[in-house]
């Protein structure tokens, strides 16, 4: 797994790390039991602070994607995929609810909102 960090994207670096690791788990690139790079090693590779990597790993652990084992490292959890999918679905529903509220406030018809959703979905693939 190769992480690519952009300092100009506007997204915090720890979020970029989380997103890429989460995607690697969902895509099967990282499997249950796989070890993530050590905090220091990843920080050195990406030329960022160890604290930034620590925050990303800790938040992934809070989400149930990985498990931090003191003295051994950080490993992908067995149930990470299912738990992560449920959490991402909840997050998507909340974002869609917010988008629907904005669309209704703007007076956009459902068909246009659906079309916008399809366009955005395809744009991000």
UniProtKB/TrEMBL annotation:
Top-rank lineage group of the source organism: Bacteria
Coiled-coil intervals, chain numbering: none
InterPro entries on file: Tscrpt_reg_HTH_GntR (IPR000524), WH-like_DNA-bd_sf (IPR036388), WH_DNA-bd_sf (IPR036390)
Keyword Transcription regulation attached: yes
Gene3D superfamilies in alphabetical order: Winged helix-like DNA-binding domain superfamily/Winged helix DNA-binding domain
Molecular-function GO term, any one: DNA-binding transcription factor activity
Record keywords: DNA-binding, Transcription, Transcription regulation
Pfam families (alphabetical): GntR
Residue ranges of domain HTH gntR-type in the record: 11-79
Name this polypeptide is given: GntR family transcriptional regulator
